[in-house]
Amino acid sequence: MGAPIELFGWQAGPEGFVRYGTSPNPVLSEWQDYLYLNAAGGRGSGKSTAGACRTLLYALAWDGSLGIVTAPTIQMLHDATVPALMKVMHESGLQPGDHYDYYALPRDELVLKTGERETKIIFRPTEHPDRLRGQDAAFAWMDEPSYAVEKAFLNLQATLRQQGYPHQAWLTGTPRGRLHWTYQIFNDQMRPPGPGTYKLDMAPT
């Protein structure tokens, strides 16, 4: 593998966005379960890179897991979110064919082959939130949630039920104000029922 991706500021360190609630060891007792993170910031803040880094960190640590990566539309997925993940993978030394296989539309998924078991990441738009149901996932990355309805987030939460893995989801996007569901959920005003730790990181531009 290549050199680790250089992280900065709010991204870096054990309490930073990328590593918060994780451990170098794939041991359930060392990873925080039902953890929800939100990195909110403007353009140039590095939030999408941070989301991609956290996605890769989780996928490499927990082979056999299933992850769901979303963006508001198919076009936004393939214009920004998927390229961000691919860039981080390439910079980490992962090579197509050797370390992973990417399957384009209509399958739209990535299979990571670095562990004893394959890890799968599926890419889905949030514009049809009901289509996010039905999976048993371990982790999820929701890119640009400010353009998605709250139901999409709640449906993603409901998929985090794959047994034997820490259940975590992270959001990266541009803030949309105090009335938006992302603000209200992550500021303890409108929390969904059930277990969970919510943490908001404001990513300076």
Would you mind describing this structure in some detail?
24% of the residues lie in helices and 22% in strands. It is an alpha/beta fold and 205 residues long. The chain has an 8-stranded mixed beta sheet, sandwiched between helices. The longest helix has 18 residues, at 74-91. The radius of gyration is 16 Å and the shape is globular. The model has no long low-confidence stretch (mean pLDDT 91).
Main β-sheet: number of strands, strand sense, barrel status? 8 strands, mixed
Q: Rough shape?
A: globular
Uncertain segments of ≥5 residues (pLDDT<50)? none
Distance between the termini: 30 Å
Strand order of the largest sheet: 3-4-5-2-6-7-1-8
Portion of residues in helices?
Answer: 10-25%
Task: Outline the fold blueprint.
Blueprint (H helix, E strand, L loop, with lengths): L34 E7 L5 H15 L4 E6 L2 H18 L8 E4 L5 E4 L6 E7 L13 E5 L6 H10 L8 E6 L7 H6 L10 E7 L2
Parallel strand pairs: 1-7, 1-8, 2-5, 2-6, 6-7
Antiparallel strand pairs: 3-4, 4-5
Summed up:
It contains 4 helices and 8 strands, in the order βαβαββββαβαβ.
Short descriptors:
single chain; alpha/beta; globular
